Amino acid sequence: MIATAEEIARAVADVLGPAARSVILHGSLAAGGFRPGRSDIDLLAVSERRLTDAELDELERLIRDTDLRGEASGVDLDVVTAETAAAPSAQPPLELHAGRSGGLFEVERRAAAAPDLLAELSMARAGGRALHGAPPAEVIGPVPDRWVVDRGRQWLRTWLTLTDDDAHAAFMVLTACRIWRFAVEGDHLSKAEAGAWALRRRPSLIAIGAALRRLDQGERGPVAPIAPARVAAVLETVLRETE
To answer: Is the Cβ–Cβ distance between 64 and 36 less than 8 Å?
Structure first.
């Protein structure tokens, strides 16, 4: 699986040419918790300059058309300038996000403010691995933990309006656990690791156990629904614990 990530990183670097400062693997494949065929490959590219329209087009095609050989469920690429990476702001600009997962493809170009990038920068700096160019700590400046937590809390409040969305219930619950763990310990864990940690901390939160079972089961057979009230209990608990 690392070989596939390395191939994609080389292709990204080839598109950027001399401007490619670093292409960093982060997320579960770099830090642990990767599930073959079910996890995504997460990459962050740092460019010495803004991207041209032609480069944006080529990177979009690369992410859309890359053959993952069934080894991963998708691939996510974020591209930022070296200036953005070196001194992250609370609303960092983004050159490109291109993501493919489960048959869906999404693109965002030249976003003036991309607050969700904060978590990506924080994870890449803490546990990323350079597949091309400079190491993460050399190109990514410190991201204040509070910024990452505050952005996570915004999502928690949004998800409280979506607790009946059972298709995404496990994602919301386990991502909430990741936010909680980061707020308490300052480290980034996988969904499974963070869920197990949170369940030990608060065994009464039944939705966490259900979400972990769903994560283990994957797409094998039917899954039991997670009651909206139990999803809400997790989200509300994490909001309280991260104030």
So the answer is: no
Strand, coil or helix: what is 182?
A: helix
Along the 243 residues of the chain, how does pLDDT read in single tens digits? 578 999 999 999 999 999 999 999 998 877 777 777 778 899 999 999 999 999 999 999 999 998 888 888 899 999 999 999 999 999 999 999 999 987 889 999 999 999 999 999 999 999 999 999 999 999 999 999 999 999 999 999 999 999 999 999 999 999 999 999 999 999 999 999 999 999 999 999 999 999 999 988 765 556 789 999 999 999 999 999 999
Tell the residue number behind the tokens 């763990």, with chain if given. 181
User: What is the gyration radius of the CA atoms in the chain, in angstroms?
Assistant: 18
Q: Give Cα separations from 111 to 76, 77, 94, 97, 139 (angstroms).
A: 16, 14, 5, 9, 20
- Residue 21's domain comprises 2-139
How many angstroms separate the CA atoms of 126 and 53, rounded?
31
Mark which of 96, 118, 139 sits at the end of a domain.
139
Q: Rounded to two decimals, what is the model's pTM?
A: 0.92
Q: Quote the number of domains for the chain.
A: 2
Do the strands 129-133 and 94-101 form a parallel or antiparallel pair, or are they unpaired? unpaired
- The verdict on 123 and 173 lying in the same domain is no
Buried b vs exposed e over 145-179: b needs ≥16 C-beta within 10 Å? eebbbebbbebbeebeeebeeeeebbebbbbbbbb
Query: How many Å apart are CA 179 and CA 149, to the nearest integer?
Result: 6
